[in-house]
Amino acid sequence: MIFANIEYLFLLLFLIPYIAWYFVRRKKTEPTLQVSTTRMYMQMPKNWKIYLLHAPFLLRVTAFVMIVLVLARPQTTDNWQNTEIEGIDIMLAVDVSTSMLAEDLKPNRLEAAKMVASEFINGRPNDNIGLTIFAGEAFTQCPLTVDHSVLLNLFHSIKGDIAQKGLIEDGTAIGMGLANAISRLKDSKAKSKVVILLTDGVNNRGDISPLMAADIAKEFGIRVYTIGVGTNGTAPYPISTYAGVQYIQTPVEIDEQTLTQISSTTNGNYFRATSNSKLEEVYKEIDKLEKTKLNVKEFSKREEAFAIFGLIAFFCVLLEMLLRNTILKKIP
What we know:
Elements: E1 2-3, H1 15-28, H2 55-71, E2 74-75, E3 79-87, E4 89-95, H3 109-122, E5 128-134, E6 138-145, H4 148-156, H5 174-185, E7 193-199, H6 210-219, E8 222-229, E9 234-241, E10 244-251, H7 256-265, E11 270-273, H8 276-286, E12 292-300, H9 307-324
């Protein structure tokens, strides 16, 4: 523990004259009732109140010390600690193109993927997990981290209309999404490195083909699990019109052959998720991956720690007032 305003501790020096004054004053205090001799009282048992005579004084001193400590602002110290945990390195590569707004999964493909992936993340607290999103281009939404609260906040902030708003080029660049995830894993020292790639379409954008990205993943020892999300046949897709939201049936086109080749090249697996329950089953299957030991450096943030001292001071003052006005009340 450290003190932000340590100079206030010098106030404790005032206790020295106060304590001296207390005992000098007590010796000079005249008794209320005077008797010629106290010899007759020597053998009498002492009343329990005798032991409380100095309690108000001790309570005042304690309260003063606590108040000074509050003014000095005690704080917990920043702390770095190395720990060893069981886990693997995982990059999630999620398609955020406009087709992910189709509602064959509820409430739509993207939101269903976010909900199920969030449960997957919460179930693996010791893993290094990161997030790549892609449409017509790809970028890292969150690098590898064991701080899953930050990861989940960034994950939940993704909206299905980012391509419609022009924040990212629309389309499906599977190869670019995979390559971006690989770039975050290639220097990892973990024994097991995994990419979980989720898409609902066919590669139609990007400078890197999906199979080329798969070969790169293989070179770096990265296993890729691919997930094709979408029902069979057609799916309802919302369109905003002057009359409100209208739905049209759009064909579901998933390049299962390419996704299967990606997974087989990297010793992974391809899964097809046609519903929310199927998508949950996919992530449960992937959850059975092996684990390896990771060295993690944890940081403890400095926090204010004055509250306990303030409470002690308050109760000391309160108890001292109760004693002085009840069982230790003096007769004038």
